[in-house]
Backbone:
């Protein structure tokens, strides 16, 4: 890959991940209970792995294939349980979920299933070095954003 393309790709990664790895207010967790709290914890943990992957993709952290695999696999194992954490109508206080989830359930379920595939692809790419990992990471980040765009409240609406 030409250096210019790598730079462009890295910029794209920054753009797509900004919204994903941004901080989450602590108060939201204090108010949340039951399944809402549970899925916030799962998403938060996924977000933590994503932050680590993002730092390596951007070159802010030293590339470590084993760590990439660990973080990507952690997201993959959690992805399998995501859909189950959204029982119909679960919009209890502090939830940032949108009711469109249950209007467009097949799409939501598909995006959660896809999360297993896109995170798995990052784990597979890990041994190929940063050049192989960055495009796989960008695809994973798009997966997060696609679901958040359609099914999660925007920060401004809080
Ligand atoms: C299938 C849809 C979907 C996918 C895919 C998805 N998310 Fe989420 N995410 C949500 C929804 C919906 C919420 C809001 C849940 C709530 O507040 O009840 C959320 C919330 C979050 C939160 C805030 C959790 C909190 O503490 O309140 C973080 C962080 C997050 N997601 C990170 C990620 C990352 C990183 C990825 C990709 C690796 C990802 N998500 C993929 C649907 C998704």
Residues:
């Amino acid at each position: 890959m030409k250096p210019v393309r790598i730079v462009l790709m890295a910029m794209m990664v920054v753009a797509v991940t900004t919204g994903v790895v941004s901080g989450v207010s602590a108060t939201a967790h204090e108010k949340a209970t039951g399944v809402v709290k549970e899925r916030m914890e799962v998403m938060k943990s996924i977000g933590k792995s994503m932050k680590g992957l993002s730092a390596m993709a951007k070159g802010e952290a030293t590339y470590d294939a084993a760590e990439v695999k660990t973080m990507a696999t952690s997201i993959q194992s959690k992805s399998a349980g995501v859909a189950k954490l959204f029982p119909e109508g679960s919009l209890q206080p502090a939830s940032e979920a949108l009711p469109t989830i249950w209007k467009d359930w097949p799409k939501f379920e598909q995006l959660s299933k896809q999360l297993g595939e896109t995170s798995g692809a990052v784990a597979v790419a890990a041994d190929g070095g940063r050049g192989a990992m960055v495009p796989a990471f960008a695809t994973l980040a798009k997966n997060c954003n696609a679901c958040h765009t359609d099914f999660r409240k925007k920060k401004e609406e809080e």
